[in-house]
Amino acid sequence: MHPAYSVIIFTTFSGAGYGLLFLMGLFAAGQWIEPDRWFGFTGFFLSFTMVVSGLLASTFHLGHPERAWRALSQWKSSWLSREGVLAIAGFVPFSLFAFGWVIYESHDGAWRLFAILTVLFAVLTVYATSMIYATLRTIRAWFNRHTVRIYLAFAIWTGSVWFNMLAHLFDLHTPGIGMIVVVTGVLALWLKRKYWVFLDTSPTWVPAESATGLGDLGKVRLLDAPNTQENYVQKEMGFSIARKHSVKLRRWAFFGYFLIPWLLAVGTVEAEPWLKIPAAILAVVVMMAGTMLERWLFFAEAKHTVNLYYGAQDS
Amino acid sequence: MTQIPVNTTGKKLGLVIDLDICVGCHACAVNCKEWNTGGHSAPLPDTDPFGENADGVWFNRVHTFECGDGADSRTVHFPRSCMHCEEPACVEVCPTGASYKRAEDGIVLVNEDICIGCKLCSWACPYGAREYDGDAGVMKKCTLCIDRIYNENLEEVDRVPACVSTCPVNARHFGDLGDPNSDVSRMVEDRGGYDLMPELQYAPVNKYLPPRPKSTGYEDDRPRQLKPIEPTVSGEDAGGLFRWLDKVLTR
Ligand code: SF4
Ligand code: SF4
Q1: Partner-chain contact A229 B199, CB within 8 Å
Q2: Cβ atoms of A217 and B76 closer than 8 Å
């Protein structure tokens, strides 16, 4: 699949934004963090910015952005529509939760309810995003049980690196936050590795013989394509990176999304402020770049069945 | 809207494509383009039509495959267009309701007035039947020529999709595949018509008729072999005037 930058930016940033909201809601609901006004303000500002800019980025590639509101209508059947509805509905609990934290500096009573709803909406929205991909039978690399897990795990992991940075900035860091970083990082790493093993070992999804139904006549090869220059279908669905590049890129992604930020965040927990704050900020920067590469691979490694009509031997 | 209709008439309009006799002339694809660039989804864009990067929307494309090896190999021409699937995930994924499947005849269409051009439906189609119109910012696809098949301004014989009407070898047939007694259903029954990528469970309505087995057994009833034409007498062997003429003419 062609890796469109708007979609990569959208899923990476909105994932991190929802992950951060998830953790703020979780820590508030558990009363594990003080409702410090400026911590709250910065956290909500960052997560709202990421979520909103992600949503805006996802409208860039639309043919008719001015009609985007229509995408809210088909929630009964379409995961894309459900995602839109959840993304917008989520702003009600998010805003009320933010209001209590920033204005009243409180996590108690009703504010706590909004914290819990924030956790719920953050999870549901990321889940809906992942289901857009996980339900496409045409793409083996997405139509599997790994897709949803990876989207959720990456949202929480990327959110926790942001959360860790904020906690250091406002001197509210606790061992609990350190644990979250350790655990969610390992979780994201583990699930992603399992996914890559799955990709490398899963058998052919649909063979060329089944796409044409001509298997009885022997091996099927494309002799003439219908068109001499690439058409829309080939441009949109045809991108696929060479295997040797994918090995190298996966390694870089691993350093970026996991190893470097994880070591930076975990290794400096006990360090002096002059060290741990820059380390936590650097961890965020490297982690976002690595996650974008990971997302790029998620598209670039995915093979669509339509390529079978344009010369691919398997899908 | 994008839910698949449950209360249908049972009618499933579609195409049956005979791979045994398709000659790969692309006439169906050309006539499809010709009709539809003035029809329901008009216009079908063509960008840089005479340049290096010619591109454009086509609802029907003809691929040519080679199957098997050596003397047993065969060339099969393979037209491909929307199958008007019974379980069209392209419709279910559409967030706006622009894509829909008609309850009355099963035709899958795009309402261009509400399509936002998110392209997700084209990702959901296994057969590559949907092509995006970058000029109009909307998705386009085969309409099964709804503007011909119900068009009372046309002669009855012409009320078939443009591709079917133009096929010079009659490799394309149109009809109701929901009716077991229709001509197309009988043809599918007799010839072992099949679905493409059945494992994906889109339940395509269009069917393909397989190429007939290649006839090879000439041993007993060998057809008359044509004799190679003898080489004409060359000037060298001729005498007199002809030799002289040959010399002059070959100079
Ligand atoms: S062939 Fe593709 S576009 Fe046509 S109905 Fe089936 S899934 Fe949809
Ligand atoms: S491109 Fe148009 S028809 Fe296709 S899914 Fe998006 S809104 Fe629906």
Answers
A1: no
A2: yes
A4's CB contacts (< 8 A; 6+ apart) are A61, A299
Rounded-to-integer distance, Cα B136 and Cα A244, Å: 39
The domain tally of chain B equals 1
Chain-chain contact of B131 with A77 (C-beta, under 8 angstroms): no
Please provide the size of chain B in residues. 251
- Alpha-carbon distance of A85 to A100, in angstroms, equals 24
Q: Domain containing A238 — which CATH number?
A: 1.20.1630.10
> What distances in angstroms separate CA A102 from CA A36, A47, A68, B111, one per listed residue?
8, 14, 32, 46
Nearest to B64 among A77, A80, A224 (CB): A224
Task: Give the tens place of pLDDT for each residue, B141-150.
Answer: 999 999 999 9
At A239 the three-state DSSP class reads coil
| Contact check, Cβ <8 Å, A219/B96 | no
Global pTM?
0.91
* Residue B199 included in any domain: yes
Contact (Cβ atoms closer than 8 angstroms) between residue A238 and residue A222: no
Is B113 within the bounds of a domain? yes
- For B51-107, how does the pLDDT look when each residue is reduced to its tens digit (9 = 90+)? 999 999 999 999 999 999 988 889 999 999 999 999 999 999 999 999 999 999 999
Decide: A257 and A294 in contact? Cβ < 8 Å. yes
Distance from CA of B212 to the nearest CA of A (A): 10
Ligand 2 atom with minimal separation from the A80 CA: 5
